From TrEMBL:
InterPro entries: Cation/H_exchanger_TM, CPA2_transporter, Na+/solute_symporter_sf
Keywords (A to Z) from UniProt: Antiport, Ion transport, Membrane, Transmembrane, Transmembrane helix, Transport
Species of origin: Rheinheimera soli
Signal peptide: none
Domain annotation Cation/H+ exchanger transmembrane: ranges: 22-400
First-listed, main subcellular location of the protein, grouped into a coarse class: membrane
Membrane topology (UniProt): Multi-pass membrane protein
Protein name per the record: Kef-type K+ transport system membrane component KefB
Cited Pfam families: Na_H_Exchanger
Transmembrane stretches, start-end: 6-29, 41-59, 71-91, 103-126, 138-162, 174-197, 203-220, 241-258, 264-282, 289-307, 319-342, 354-376, 382-406
Length: 426
C-alpha cells in the first residue's frame, strides 16, 4: 500500500503525463487536419499496454500503479458525465422541424441497416470465445453491437458543420437532425441492453421503466421548474456560485438516479442537459464547465480506456480477422445506408455522400458506449479493443472523406464555432 504522500505525488505525476500526452497528440491531430479528439483518443491508447506498457512496462507500472486506478476511474467517469451534460446542452430539438422527412429517413436507415448487419455478425461472433460475456443472449449481443455500429459522433459532426459554415444549409440541418435521432436511439437501445443483461426480469423492468419515467419527468416538469432560475440569471446577466453549486448538485442527483435504476450515470447528465432551459444559463454553465471537462477530465477518460485496450491481441490473425470484418461492416452499413436514404429523399449525390461520411464517425460516443458495456460485463477485453480500433479508424476517416466528396467543392465561408466544439473538437 502507498502512503498518502506517495499516492498524491504519483497521481500528480500521472495527471501531468496524461495532460502532456493529450496536448501533444491533440496538436499533431490538428496539424494533419484531424479533430483534436482523435489525437487524445490515440494518446490514451499509447499510454496503455499497447505501446508504453509494451516497450517500457516498468515505467508504465510506476506511473499508473493499481493503487491510483480508483481515482483515475472517478475522474474519467466525472469527465464523461459532465461532457454528456454539455452535449445535452448543445442538443437542438428545433432541428427535427427542419428536413424532417429526410432526417427521419436517414436516421432510420442509419439504424436499421447496422442493426441488421449486427444481427448477422452475431451469428458468427457468438461462437468465438473471448468477445461477449459467456452468458449473454443472442438478442442482447445483437442489440449491443447494433448500437455500437449505429452510433454517431454527434459533437464531432456538429463541429465539422459549424466550422465549414454549413449550419444554415440543408446539409447541416439534415446531418445534425439525423445524427441526433441516431444517437438518441442508440442510447435507448443500450439502456435496454443494460436493463435486461444479467439482472433478471425485475431489474430489467426497473431500469427500462425507471429510465423512461425519469426522462419523462425531466422533459415535462423539471424544465419548467428550472425556468425561473434561468430567467433570474438572464435578467442579472450572471450566475452566482450558489446557483452553480445547486446545478452541480442537480447533475449529481440526475447521474445517481440513472445508476440507481440500473443504467449508467452518463444518461443522467445527458438527459439533464437536454432538459435545461436555453439562454444565458447554458452559456454560464459552458464557461464554468467546458475547460476543466475537456482539457483535464476527458483526457483521464481516454487514458483509462487506453489502459484497458490491448491492441497487441490484434497480432493474432483470428482476432484481427474479426476486427477487419467488424470495421468493414460498420463503415459500409452506416455510410451506404445513410447515403442511399439521403438520395431517396431528394438530396443530390454530393450532399448524400457528405451525409454518409459525417454519419460514419463514431469518436468519443463509441468509447463511452463500449466502456459502459465492459463495465457491465456485456463484452470482454478482446472485443473492447476491437471496438476502440473501430472508433479511432472511423473517426480518422470522417474529415478526409467529407473533404473529398463535399468540402473541397463548397465555397469558402466564415467559420461559426460554438464554445464546446471550439474547445473540444469532438
Amino acid at each position: 500500500m502507498m502512503s498518502s504522500l506517495e499516492f498524491i505525488v504519483t497521481f500528480l505525476l500521472q495527471l501531468t503525463v496524461i495532460l502532456i500526452a493529450a496536448q501533444i497528440f491533440g496538436y499533431l491531430a490538428r496539424f494533419i487536419g484531424q479533430p483534436k479528439v482523435v489525437g487524445e483518443m490515440i494518446a490514451g491508447v499509447v499510454l496503455g499496454p499497447s505501446l508504453f506498457g509494451l516497450f517500457w512496462p516498468e515505467w508504465q507500472q510506476q506511473i499508473f500503479p493499481a493503487d491510483t486506478m480508483p481515482v483515475l476511474y472517478f475522474g474519467a467517469q466525472l469527465g464523461v458525465g459532465l461532457y454528456m451534460f454539455l452535449v445535452g446542452l448543445e442538443f437542438n430539438t428545433s432541428l427535427f422541424k427542419q428536413q424532417a422527412r429526410s432526417a427521419i429517413a436517414v436516421s432510420l436507415a442509419g439504424m436499421l441497416v447496422p442493426f441488421t448487419v449486427a444481427a448477422l455478425l452475431c451469428l458468427w461472433l457468438l461462437d468465438r470465445p473471448g468477445l461477449f460475456a459467456a452468458d449473454i443472449s443472442y438478442g442482447n449481443a445483437a442489440l449491443f453491437l447494433g448500437a455500437a455500429i449505429a452510433i454517431t459522433a454527434f459533437p464531432m459532426l456538429a463541429r465539422i458543420i459549424y466550422e465549414r459554415g454549413l449550419s444554415g444549409t440543408s446539409l447541416g440541418a439534415l446531418a445534425l437532425a439525423a445524427g441526433a435521432i441516431d444517437d438518441a436511439a442508440a442510447w435507448t437501445v443500450m439502456a435496454v441492453v443494460l436493463g435486461s443483461f444479467g439482472g433478471g426480469t425485475l431489474l430489467a423492468v426497473k431500469a427500462i421503466l425507471g429510465g423512461a419515467l425519469y426522462a419523462s419527468l425531466m422533459f415535462t416538469k423539471v424544465t419548467g421548474w428550472l425556468q425561473p432560475l434561468a430567467d433570474g440569471i438572464e435578467a442579472k446577466g450572471e450566475m452566482s456560485w450558489g446557483q452553480f453549486a445547486f446545478l452541480l448538485v442537480l447533475f449529481a442527483v440526475s447521474a445517481y438516479s440513472m445508476e440507481w435504476v440500473g443504467l449508467h450515470a452518463v444518461f443522467g447528465g445527458f438527459i439533464l442537459g437536454i432538459a435545461m432551459p436555453r439562454g444565458a444559463i447554458v452559456e454560464h454553465l459552458r464557461k464554468r464547465l467546458e475547460k476543466i471537462t475537456i482539457f483535464v477530465l476527458l483526457p483521464m477518460f481516454f487514458t483509462y480506456s487506453g489502459l484497458k485496450t490491448q491492441l497487441t491481441i490484434l497480432a493474432d490473425w483470428d482476432v484481427m480477422s474479426v476486427a477487419l470484418v467488424i470495421l468493414a461492416a460498420s463503415v459500409f452499413a452506416k455510410g451506404i445506408a445513410c447515403w442511399a436514404a439521403a438520395r431517396l429523399t431528394g438530396s443530390d449525390n454530393r450532399t448524400a455522400m457528405a451525409v454518409g461520411a459525417l454519419m460514419n464517425a463514431r469518436g468519443l460516443m463509441e468509447l463511452i458506449i463500449i466502456n459502459i458495456a465492459l463495465k457491465f460485463g456485456v463484452i470482454e477485453p478482446a472485443l473492447f479493443s476491437i471496438m476502440v480500433l473501430m472508433a479511432i479508424v472511423t473517426t480518422l476517416m470522417a474529415t478526409p472523406l467529407f473533404e473529398l466528396v463535399y468540402g473541397r467543392h463548397m465555397k469558402t465561408k466564415k467559420p461559426q464555432v460554438t464554445p464546446v466544439e471550439a474547445c473540444s473538437g469532438t
